[in-house]
Design goal:
CATH topology of one domain: Beta-Lactamase
Radius of gyration: 55 Å
Structural class: alpha+beta
Largest sheet: 6 strands, antiparallel
Shape: elongated
CATH architecture of one domain: 2-Layer Sandwich
Length: 748
């Protein structure tokens, strides 16, 4: 018979058995030796008592219950049928599995029969199959992942002769490579994929199969037998001698990357070309300096325009030559090269540089320094801009500020100004800057009590410190001709200056005994010529009217409110800029009610909407609506005119400029002096109406302007004159008559 896999045959019939019995002394000792040599738990159990008769476990002994040996629990007590009973009943062997605590046991039960064929005992032996069970489960999970993976999976086994043979594939291989991969099973890796035969990949696979290390290749190109593409490979060992290659197709990704690289290269080239064009066309000088070679490796062509050197002359310079041309007073801080710990750093400097002509030019330089990993300077790229004009403007602004300071100091000597308190100064500024705010709104803006503001307003009005006017936009009324004129009278005061009151086109005038300054508006030049003829003829004047005062093609007319001047003179330090009244071109047709409201606003600037409504026989809401439209759309501008004489200004001057090559951009964009009241610009001409404390200040200003413009290189002529400022009277501003004539003729 077989006993746990060992054939012992019939005890009584074998001579060999008799020999073993004699050797060990008895049959029982011989059998016990056999049982003890087994590597599994073994016992013979009496089926009547379930007691162990024979066992090879040292911790157990005959008489113990079999359930103690095989840790199956007291089966009968648990109400389940004992497997031994099944063997006795069926007279057949039985294999059962049972959890013995943390272990999984596989128990084999075989019957032992007596001479009558009844089962009297059973042989029981068991194996711990926990590890093999776990390995089986792991293998099932791996195979499930292997089959269901979206990545292609190729399983190889290393055979004798170092042959790496394909033994399995998953369905993803067929989907990715568009082949029947099962036909490749049994072939070596070189036979299955011939294009790999001439590279190192098969050897890397063999290393994985033997050593167990994971091998990756992010990008492998394969082309053979209809298979073409880029693939990502990952190889790993599953058991000694067995490995899997997992792969995915990255061809589309690679094509996208290549397209992006091509587009990036095209974009870089485009940017470089554009940058080069910008450099070549830029007014700035740009150069690249190599610190190690001590040479300029790139210089833009504007070097000649800015510094007067040819490209070749500049390229031959060393940095030491360059520094010798910098003004000695500006060398301080020039060697600052930014933060040495950064690969790239920026430094900005300004200095004077001697041009080839010998003249100094102010340069503003933005420097970008580049270093290597050790922190040593490699090269710098520097952008250089000529800011000489800007520096001259800064100097001019500084001089202007000095002049304003002098003016303020002189102004302190004027008794009536000294009599104004700080709040009165602030309120005067507020009315000039915000003429349309009511008392409550203005008081809130200036953080004053309303009662305080109202009391100050009444006090200033009582002393004629300011007057509200509405200035019509003559261009919108169809008046395209604008002239600032002045005349010199031959024999003292002109006999017929009262004629000014009768000439509606003269909207502003200031005259003294022998001089006259005025503003004339009309839709035709001939009206102005007729005005001069009617004034008494050319022979009454020492000089003809000034041609620089005429504008046939006006670019802009700007009337500045007095808030900037008040702010500067009183040193209020308000941040609000002065309001500018700009007179736009283009006639606009108004209806009858709109014309009447506009005329009333100019004639009665202090009149309320309610009173205007009564005067022109219309409703108050209509007047309010029309006023809003006229103000919002620039038909009329509110303007508070302070008494400049009380502020210490005794003179008003006309400065007429004529530029041969057109109005320079620097002049067009220059800072506006707060003393400028009216600024008119044409294509080549510009007229400023400015206030001065006295004639000496006027002369000083003229000298400064001439000097500044000449330094700038402007070709210009300046015609100017100064007038004593006339006491403010109603005849100084005669806008209502002209508005009436333009809007209604003789209707009103």
């Amino acid at each position: 018979m077989f006993l746990c896999g060992i054939y012992v045959g019939d005890v009584g019939s074998g001579l060999k058995i008799n020999e073993y019995v004699r050797k060990f002394g008895s049959v029982s000792r011989f059998v016990q030796k056999i049982i003890d040599s087994l590597d599994c738990s073994f016992a013979i159990v009496d089926v009547g008592t379930y007691e162990i008769e024979v066992t090879n476990e040292s911790d157990f002994f005959p008489g113990m219950k079999c359930c103690d040996l095989f840790r199956c629990g007291n089966i009968e007590c648990e109400g389940r049928r004992c497997p031994i009973a099944k063997v006795v009943e069926g007279k057949k062997s039985l294999v059962v599995k049972n959890n013995g605590g943390d272990d999984l046991l596989e128990i084999h039960i075989h019957p032992i029969f007596d001479s009558q064929g009844s089962v009297v005992s059973v042989i029981i032996y068991g194996f711990d199959v926990t590890q093999s069970q776990a390995l089986g489960e792991s293998e099932r999970r791996f195979r499930s992942l292997f089959e269901s993976s979206p990545r292609g999976m190729l399983m190889y086994q290393l055979m004798p002769g170092n042959k790496l043979v394909l033994i399995n594939t998953n369905s993803a291989v067929d989907d990715i490579l568009k082949i029947d991969s099962k036909k490749l099973i049994g072939k070596t890796v070189e036979q299955a994929f011939p294009a790999l035969a001439n590279n190192e990949i098969p050897d890397e696979f063999r290393k994985v199969a033997v050593g167990g290390k994971v091998w990756c290749n992010a990008e492998t190109f394969y082309e053979y037998g209809g298979i073409t593409g880029f693939y990502e490979l990952v190889a790993f060992q599953t058991s000694p001698g067995v490995m899997v290659v997992s792969f995915t197709d990255i061809t589309d990704k690679k094509r996208t990357e290549n397209r992006l690289k091509e587009r990036e290269a095209e974009y870089v080239k485009e940017v470089e070309d554009r940058f080069y064009n910008i450099l070549q066309n830029s007014q700035d000088l740009v150069y690249r300096y190599d610190f190690k070679k001590d040479e300029f490796t790139y210089v833009s062509e504007s070097v000649f325009t800015i510094l007067g050197y040819s490209l070749g002359e500049f390229m031959k310079m060393k940095m030491s030559d360059y520094k010798k041309k910098i003004h000695p007073d500006d060398l301080n801080g020039l060697d600052s090269v930014g933060n040495g710990s950064e690969i790239e750093s920026i430094s900005n400097v300004e200095y004077r540089f001697k041009k080839k002509s010998g003249d100094y030019v102010w340069l503003r330089v933005q420097r970008v320094f580049f270093r290597d990993k050790e922190g040593d300077l490699i090269y710098s790229i520097e952008d250089i801009r000529d800011v000489t004009a800007e520096k001259l403007i800064e100097e001019e602004n500084a001089k202007l500020e000095e002049r304003l300071t002098v003016m303020r100091n002189k102004f302190l000597e004027v008794k009536e100004r000294v009599s104004l308190t700080e709040k009165e100064q602030l309120v005067l500024w507020g009315f000039c800057r915000y003429p349309l705010l009511n008392d409550e709104e203005l008081a809130r803006n200036m953080k004053l009590k309303r009662s305080t503001l109202t009391a100050i307003k009444n006090r200033l009005k009582g002393k004629n410190w300011f007057k509200l006017n509405y200035i019509p936009n003559f261009h919108k009324m169809g008046c395209q001709f604008f002239s600032i004129f002045d005349l010199n009278v031959k024999n003292g005061r002109a006999e017929n200056l009262d004629f000014l009151k009768k000439t509606s086109q003269v909207i502003l005038s200031n005259y003294q005994d022998d001089k006259l300054l005025g503003v004339f508006v009309s839709d035709r030049y001939v009206d102005f010529k007729k005005f001069l003829d009617d004034f008494g003829g050319v022979d009454k004047f020492r000089n003809d009217f000034h041609k620089n005062s005429f504008f046939y093609d006006l670019d802009s007319i700007k009337l500045y409110d007095a808030s900037g001047l008040v702010n500067s003179m009183f040193g209020l330090k308000r941040s609000e800029v002065a309001t500018v009244c700009e007179f736009d071109n283009g006639a606009v047709e108004l209806n009858t009610n709109e014309k009447r409201v506009l005329h009333a606003m100019v004639k009665y600037p202090e009149m309320s909407s309610s009173d205007i409504a009564k005067k022109i026989w219309t409703s108050k809401p209509t007047v309010i609506k029309i006023r809003k439209k006229l103000l919002d759309q620039g038909y009329v501008y509110p303007y508070v005119l302070p008494d400049f004489r009380k502020m210490g200004f005794s003179c008003v001057a006309r400065l007429s400029f004529n530029f041969d090559s057109g109005l320079p951009i620097e002049v067009d964009k220059e800072r506006v002096d707060p003393r400028i009241v009216l600024l008119v610009k044409g294509k080549k001409k510009m007229v400023k109406i400015m206030l001065f404390s006295n004639e000496d200040e006027y002369i000083e200003e003229i000298d400064l302007i001439k000097d500044f413009y000449r330094k700038k290189g402007f070709d210009f002529s300046l015609n100017s004159d100064v007038f004593l400022l006339q006491k403010r009277r109603s005849c100084n501003t005669n806008m209502e008559s002209y508005v009436n004539d333009v809007l209604f003729g003789d209707e009103i």
